[in-house]
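Problem: given the chain below (671 residues), write out its structure.
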Amino acid sequence: MADPAARPGTMPVQRRDASFVPASFDEAKRTMEVVWSKGAPVQRTDWWNGKRYTETLSLDAAHVDLSRMNAGAPVLLDHRVYEADAIIGVVEKAWIADGEGRAIVRFSEVPEVQRYVTQIREGVLRNISITYQVRKFEITEEEGKDPVYRAVDWMPWEVSFLPVGADPDAGSRGAKPQEFPVEIVTRGQPARHIQEQANMSDPKNTAGQPGPAEQTRAAVPPPAAPDENGIRASAIEAERKRAADIRTRVRSVGLGEEFADDLVSRNIEAPAAAQMIVDELAKRAAPAAKPHNVSVGYSPEDPDVSRAVAGEALLARATRNLQGDQRVAPTDRSRELAGLPLLEVLAEHARVCGVKIARGLRGAPLYDALMEQRTLATGDFPLILSAASNKIMVKAYMLAAPTYRRIAARRSFADFKPHNFLRFGDFPAPAQKNEAGEFTYGAISEARNQISAEEFGRIVRLTRRMLVNDDMDAFSQLPAMAARRSADFENRQFFAMFALNAGAGPTIFEKNMPSGRALFHAADHGNYVSSGTVIDVTNVGLGRAAMMKQKSLDGLLLNTVPRFLLTSPDKYTVAEQFCAVNIMPATDANANPFKGKLEPLADASLTGNAWHLFADPSESEVFVYGYLDGFEGPRLLTKEGFTTAGMDMLLAIDWACGAVDYRGAYKNAGA
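Solution.
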């Protein structure tokens, strides 16, 4: 018989810290015993209602499903479930003993894993954590205390080694967390209900005698009920903004959705995620080391090493006056050079490369000596300067978040040829087959729109005077300025395309409309209201209904819902008020059902009263943008000037944007 106190629900997988003993490491077998759970209580927050609770894991063998662990669960680095390289071992055996969850883990023998095994054996990498799924909770509630959720049916999935212990509240949550059914059984009621239930017997007290809480605690007046809807809405909105901010930053630099998913699911806050994105970009951009027959440390006389050290020194010196994440500290090997003027750093590198540059020269004489030896033109100076400049620019470009990236999906462009963006219809409906008949073929509709990447660029000059004067402020500001200009350029290009056809948007081509129609078209697309109305529940509701009623190429209803409300700066305040989650209505009749469901956006490229609704681009693509493969974002190139003394710096960007569908967008002319 079903438990009358049980209720169904969903919950994402959870994580919590565990421990191990380095002394248990077996060299021959490469195994180690770990304690992956002691069932200790952990404070967590229910992100759907904002309430805190205490979670405990039952370590009764009947309550723990070890099938996944004993089937060879992975041993990972830092819960990086999307990366095969993060697998460092496997669980060979898991069991419950003396109130603890224990396991024998075996580490891989591949060379890439050895350094982690060494750190684990030495006790340097000493934190471990598990991911697990709870299928049933028993809840005990007591007045004045957080409810206790005791997991009585749960399954561990994997074991991870971490450099820093996991946050106890860090469940696997993100923009779209993977959730699983969980049965929740309430075993006790809050004390404030005791008076109301004085005549009810405890389910386990068949004699109908008062329960323990009634015997030891008097009834007290219930406290004022918290605004649970407000708490829930605020928590959901904060989480949505965190995830959206991280995904926008990751998409803008082309690191891929898997990297964004990992940052979001690991509960990384946006500022920390920004630095991790920069680190990942630097790691992926690092040039491959040239092979050597013998490699023991590094030699300062090696030209490759000298070039890298010079670049590190210039980067540290150029960013020393910048703030926060944009500032780069010198490395140990570049610390000495970081205090030298720009030309002297280049002279030191030239000497390592065998170029004879007299010592003691400064300023203009040193510049002339370097020019005489063609060091500034044909040597490594352009490479060193470009590398340092690009690292400064990447940091600034990553921090920029132009509006268009919120409503456009990122796609790749292999070359400069027109790229066909196909939109397919629906799978054909199944047709009945007679007893002696055959299955019949169906067709899938398609439509295509073409978009091409284009080359853009502009040259600026690092003059002889700037180089002689050692103007590092100008050197550090130029790449940052280039990054901001690139982001602004992309945004202006996008909204110029957005404003085509007198504000109705670019032309969209469909199979039944080969001549095309503007993106926002009342008659043929059903997504434009030319007789403008104000932003309110009624009119936004009409827009949402129009989007939900849009049909696919084969006529199926799409049920697309809006995610963003886009306006000009003139209507941005109204949009913010409409979408705000912390404004409470005076009456239920005035409640805003869109509160917390729409995110307001505005851009100075837009004017007037018009307002737009857009679906999340990951669910319904309307616009796309992208870069030429291999050139993900703007880049800076330097070379010797041809007409005047100095260095030319080229800002280049290969970029594209366009529209591919109309079904995820809606426009109202506004009032």
